[in-house]
Input
Amino acid sequence: MKYSTFLIKYAEIAVKGKNRYVFEDALMHRIRLVLKHVEGDYAVTKSQGRVYVDCLSACDEDEVIAALKRVFGINGICPVVKTDTEDFESLKEEVVKFVDDQYPDKNHTFKVFAKRARKTYPVSSMEMNCAIGEAVLEAYPSMKVDVHKPEIEIHVEVRESIFIYSKQYAGPGGMPVGTNGKAMLLLSGGIDSPVAGYMIAKRGVKIDAVYFHAPPYTSERAKQKVVDLARLVSRYTGTICLHVINFTDIQLAIYEKCPHEELTIIMRRYMMRIAERLACDNGCLGLITGESIGQVASQTVQSLAVTNEVCTLPVFRPLIGFDKLDIIALSEKIGTFETSILPYEDCCTIFVAKHPVTKPDAMIIRRSETKLADVIDELVEKAIETDEVINVI
Ligand code: ATP
Ligand code: MG
Output
């Protein structure tokens, strides 16, 4: 028996009332997009609160499942056998055959979960549970029923067709990208920001990104690493419009005119200001960073407050309470870690002071920034003009 259909389960989005179709349509759209990268033809349809993926040609089941595991909004992926058998005796036989096919070793406990969604079907759910359970026991006497903790769940759902399935692969959860507006991710080549982008996209937010580079102090390879990271994140989020901004002159001006222990914090403030400009110009409703309290000097509560005050858009910091080890575990899970740890220089690390302020005072920082007054507006405008847009797919 070969699977040709996948039943897609989604929990959270199913409870969105009248907006439900918006979520379902976004989910189907994302599923179609990820399947474009998997060999084969697929039909993605919805019916009675369920989404189905039908393989219309030969397909590699593992690849389909791997692709679907990257679609936010999916809670479970069930390879199902679809049958048009209406006769209940034949249905029982199909289930018995299904069990044999799926579990050659018959030493398992099981439970039947029948669901009669189509009420015109002549056998009730309860009757189906009993009769199918009996048929399985009769065919395979070494199997046992366990209604509390069965090793195998045998699902039989009577809908427009009848579906038999027992395996469920976990999806990523969350909500389909595109159902919750768009935000601008400050994407560096580090470990944290790709994870931050993943987490916000998981809540249905479409992602644009901005990377500040500082040639010749940072190399083409460092930039390529960020493009590669954006590509890895885009496997979950869909296309990312990545803005690359030349930040060198701003950085040099700060280096020349401001106290060195304040370099990082002032630099971070200019990154946020420019990111906000790009966000507003591109319809983004918030900024996203990979900051986490106390991780480095520029991420103490005081530093975060001083960085934050230059923005009016909300700044989403999904990693704010995470330990580095938790972030690393997540980056390994989503597949960005290996790329993040490649040793290319970052513009933040080149201009760092030996003893950066850890408790900056906003008044003092603002005063230091006035030393840039006669050049900074022009430098910011020029930096924005360098915007190189890369559509990362
Ligand atoms: P990451 O691992 O994400 O680089 P980090 O621990 O190195 O984080 P910082 O360098 O202080 O921390 O940066 C904090 C956040 O600022 C990053 O998570 C990212 O969102 C943003 N950021 C830092 N450098 C850049 C850059 N060159 N371009 C774009 N965003 C940046
Ligand atoms: Mg960094």
